[in-house]
Automatic annotation (TrEMBL):
<dbReference type="InterPro" id="IPR037465">
    <property type="entry name" value="YlxR"/>
</dbReference>
<feature type="domain" description="YlxR">
    <location>
        <begin position="9"/>
        <end position="83"/>
    </location>
</feature>
<protein>
    <submittedName>
        <fullName>YlxR family protein</fullName>
    </submittedName>
</protein>
<dbReference type="InterPro" id="IPR007393">
    <property type="entry name" value="YlxR_dom"/>
</dbReference>
<dbReference type="InterPro" id="IPR035931">
    <property type="entry name" value="YlxR-like_sf"/>
</dbReference>
<dbReference type="Pfam" id="PF04296">
    <property type="entry name" value="YlxR"/>
</dbReference>
Length: 104
């Protein structure tokens, strides 16, 4: 039995490598909408953040999402994402315990 491989992703704010399910995905969709993707399955360019508000604030301060998504993310988008982030935080924490590792 070999141990199950846990997919790791890097948080764009603190640069830490974390198991994918510990991270919240932000996606830029093909029609240039930037949103939080709790399912992790939306198509587009993704960026990962720890499920912590402090990391979101860091990303906002450093414009980490701009770099990760290769797009200009305006302050109002950061603000909107931050609201979403706060809203999904609880759901995300609840999901973490139930979600199985997906393919990959
Ligand atoms: Zn982080």
């Amino acid at each position: 039995m070999k141990p199950r491989k846990v997919p790791l992703r890097k948080c764009v704010a603190c640069q830490e490598m974390m198991p994918k399910k510990e991270l919240i995905r932000v996606v830029k969709t093909p029609d240039d909408q930037i949103m939080i993707d709790l399912s992790g399955k939306k198509s587009g360019r993704g960026a990962y953040l720890c499920g912590k508000r402090s990391c979101f604030k860091l990303a906002k301060k450093n414009k980490s999402l701009d770099r990760a998504l290769k797009a200009a993310v305006s302050a109002s988008i950061y603000d909107a994402l931050e609201q979403d982030f706060i809203r999904v935080e609880d759901e995300f924490i609840a999901l973490k315990d139930t979600v199985d590792d997906d393919e990959e």
